[in-house]
Each structure stands twice: as C-alpha cells, then as structure tokens.
TrEMBL record:
It comes from Ganoderma sinense ZZ0214-1. This is MYND-type domain-containing protein. Keywords: Metal-binding, Zinc, Zinc-finger. GO terms for cellular component: nucleus. One of its GO terms (molecular function) is zinc ion binding. It holds the Pfam family zf-MYND. Residues 261-297 form the MYND-type domain.
Length: 446
C-alpha cells in the first residue's frame, strides 16, 4: 500500500498548488494537514457546489447520439472539454496561450498537481469514448495502481460534471486481484477504441493525492447511495471525482496567510511591537527569537515609509510576459542541495493581481532602476525574493515618489546608483509601503 504522506510531500503538493510554504516551515503538522485539505478542496472549486447538494437528485450528464457508418451509439456530451479548468493563475504563469488539450500525452510529468489535472482530462476522454472504467498505474515501477469504475456521470451545471466512482488502490501484494478485475472489465466492457486508453500513467505521489481527494470527497456521497458492485468489488469504496484547476486568487491568498508564530508555527499570536514585521504566539517564543531578530527590529526605528503606487508593467510592456530567474532554496524540490534556480513567468496585466502571500507582514523587495532612453519614461522594477510579486514604479505615473526612490538609490545606502533592497508591506493590490531610508540589517540573500 502507498505510505501516508510525509511532511515534505505535503509541502511539495501545497507548493505545486501555489501555496508558498517553505520546505523548512515550522507550521504544526495539524495546521499543515488542514491547509492541504483546504487547498485540495479549493483546487476542485468545491465552494461552487450547491450548499445542500444531494447527488441522488442531480440530473445525469446529457447523452447524445452519435452515428457512424450505420451504427449509432450514445455518448456523453463531450466531457474532455467540460473538465477543462483554467483561471487567471494559468495566464499568470504561462501567458495567454492555452496548452493543446485534444491530443495530449497521458504521461506523468512529475508535478503531482499538474499530473492530477491531466489524469482528470484522461478520464474524461475514456468516458467520452464510451468507456466505464480505467486503471491508474505507476509506469516507473508498476507497483501502485488505482482501479476505477465509473458509476454515474452527473450534471451540476453545463460545465461541471461529477463522476461517481467505485475505486480501490492496489499494490504488488494484491496484483492478482487487480488483474482479475481488469480481465473482468475487458470482458464486460471492452474499450471501444484502443485498450491503452484505459491505462493512465500516474506517479505514486499523484496517486496518494488522488486517494486523499477521494477520501475527502466521500463525504459528498450519502450513506444510502446504492451502487451495483461486481463480485470482485466487494471492498471497493465509493466517492467522487470533480474537475480540478489552479487555485483562484482568493484561495491562494487565504492559504498563504497566517503562517503562525515565526518560532514554533502555532497560530493566533501577535506581531512584534517594535517593527510589526514578525509574529509570535507567546512571550516565550518572542524571547527565544530576540537574539536573531533584534538587529532587524532596531534598524526600523523611526524610519521613513513611503507609499509606492505601482503598475503591473513598465511603459509599453502591458500585457506581455516577463520571466524572472532566481535562486531560492525553499522552493527547490526535495533532495536538491543548496539553492536551486527558480523561474517564474508573470503575465503583466493590471487585471491579474498577485496573491498576497505575506498577509500584511513585511518582506524584502529588490528594486532595480531602469533608465529609459526617453525622458520621463524611467521605471523601477520591484520584486520579492520568493518571486510571488513583481511590479513597476513608473516615472510617468508618480514623478515625485519615483524621484525620491532614485535619489535614495544614488545615495550612500544605494548600490551603484541603480539598485536597493528595502523592507516593504503590501497595502493594496498595486500598492506597497516602502521603508525608504533603512538598509535591511539582515544578510540579504537574493
Ligand atoms: Zn511560538
Ligand atoms: Zn521587531
């Protein structure tokens, strides 16, 4: 059987969902678990389901007649299209072009969440071809499998199908019964096109994630929901699969916020009175942290804070894509030593707001002056080390503040007259409060 999730795996899945929890996070296990459950629910947009939804009263997904060469068959209204979920987050990461969906490979790519989306699309294609079962399998080791038989396709709305499934996870020890079950399916419900269609490749981590989702979703199936089981399915469980997509802005912000006490991870604390930049659960944790924190805290005393109103793009670059490359340890994949390069693409549009992953806490921003050939068209690019936020302070939009920032960069606390690192706080979608006249006392790693 698949092992339970490790802490590292939970964080990795949260990271692939856009929840930026560092690998060395101190969040308590119970809080981490809660975030994972909430993130998986958010990826299925479960808050859009009717509050008192009863799957026994939902309409079946419409079937349509399709005829070819004299034979007609009944197929679901195309599901492959209906399960596509694409939000602003996709555009933010990949730009405006859609990935080709029709002839997609079903190979796992190693990002458990993207693999899960791909698996849902592959399942939709099985159903579109008239199939009623499939087998998820780990191609690399051929050890872990999940058997699925589709009991019902239900329609919540025109673009929201739900799949009621009977499922069972299997491993090497239960290999025999898996083969028997597959043979039974091939006999009673042979795949109409290619038999390979019903084999969907799925990594062990993706399978763990799917099993977790199925366990969570089983609460949506009433206990008296009746299912026709085949003889080999006595121990199969009933649950539901719901189309998945990237987390929406609100969900990402919510799940990234309230990271708890910066020493122990416990929630429900207060911020340091000196600087408001760190949170603690108790005086005890605050004392423990003081030796590390005091330099940063004292450096902010009586500082000048300026409000910078920002734009998503520099002049003339609206609605283009910007790629940032950075080295940052906490986003690196498990196993990687030291810092790993990290690349992130931003689609530069005021309509695409960056999720607030700092929840009002201070964070370090790097500011880089770009002088323009044209007078009055200069700008300063600002971004954070975790690359969750990038924005531009434009000379043509706020000449006064722009000039003040350039003067600071060109003064003794700037670097070569074109760069500086400063503590900032998010005060709006496109607004930061910047601690202008203090160099960060911490060692700035970028
Ligand atoms: Zn604490
Ligand atoms: Zn402080």
């Amino acid at each position: 059987m698949l092992e339970p999730f490790t802490r590292e795996e939970k964080i990795r899945i949260l990271n692939t969902l856009g929840v930026d929890i560092p690998a060395d996070s101190k969040l308590l296990d119970s809080i981490l678990e809660k975030r994972l459950c909430a993130a998986l629910d958010a990826a299925q947009y479960k808050d859009r389901l009717p509050a008192s939804m009863n799957i026994k009263t939902l309409r079946p997904w419409p079937m349509i007649e399709s005829g070819q060469g004299g034979t007609t068959s009944t197929r679901p209204r195309p599901l492959a299209k209906a399960v596509q979920r694409r939000t602003l987050a996709d555009a933010r990461q990949a730009g405006p072009s859609l990935p080709a969906a029709e002839n997609e490979e079903t190979m796992a790519i190693g990002n458990p969440f993207e693999d899960f989306r791909r698996t849902i699309r592959a399942i939709a294609r099985v159903l579109d071809k008239g199939g009623r079962w499939c087998l998820l399998r780990d191609d690399s080791e051929d050890r872990n499998k999940i058997m699925f038989r589709f009991i019902a396709i239900l329609e919540v709305t025109k673009n929201l199908p739900l799949f009621v499934v009977l499922y069972q996870a299997a491993d090497q020890e239960t290999q025999g019964s898996t083969e028997d079950w597959v043979l039974e399916q091939l006999k009673t419900d042979p795949p109409s096109s290619s038999p390979a269609l019903s084999n969907i490749s799925s990594s062990p981590l993706e399978q763990k994630m799917i099993l977790k989702v199925l366990k969570q979703n089983s609460s949506l199936v009433p206990t008296d929901y009746e299912v026709d089981r085949q003889p080999l399915e006595a121990h199969f469980k009933v649950s539901m699969l719901i189309p998945v997509g990237p987390l929406e802005y609100e969900a990402v912000s919510k799940l990234n916020n309230n990271m708890g006490c910066s020493v122990c991870g416990k929630s429900g604390g207060y911020r340091c009175k000196g600087c408001q930049s760190v949170s603690y659960c108790s005086a005890e944790c605050q004392r423990t942290d003081w030796a590390d924190h005091k330099a940063a805290c004292r450096s902010l005393k009586d500082a000048t804070w300026r409000t910078a109103r920002l734009s998503a793009a520099s002049p003339g670059k609206e609605n283009t894509t910007l790629t940032l490359v950075n080295r940052h340890t906490s986003m690196s994949l498990p196993g990687a030593q030291g810092s790993a390069p990290m690349t992130k693409q931003f689609f530069l549009s005021d309509g695409l707001v960056h999720p607030d992953v700092y929840g009002g806490d201070m964070f370090l921003a790097k500011m880089q002056l770009q002088t323009a050939a044209q007078r009055g068209r200069g700008h300063i690019m600002l971004y954070d080390r975790r690359m969750t936020f990038v924005a531009f302070l434009r000379e043509d939009k706020d000449r006064e503040v722009f000039r003040e920032f350039v003067e600071e960069m060109q003064g003794p606390r700037g670097y070569m007259g074109v760069r500086m690192h400063r503590w900032v706080k998010r005060t709006g979608n496109w607004e930061l409060s910047v601690c202008l006249d203090r160099e960060p006392a911490t060692d700035v790693k970028w």
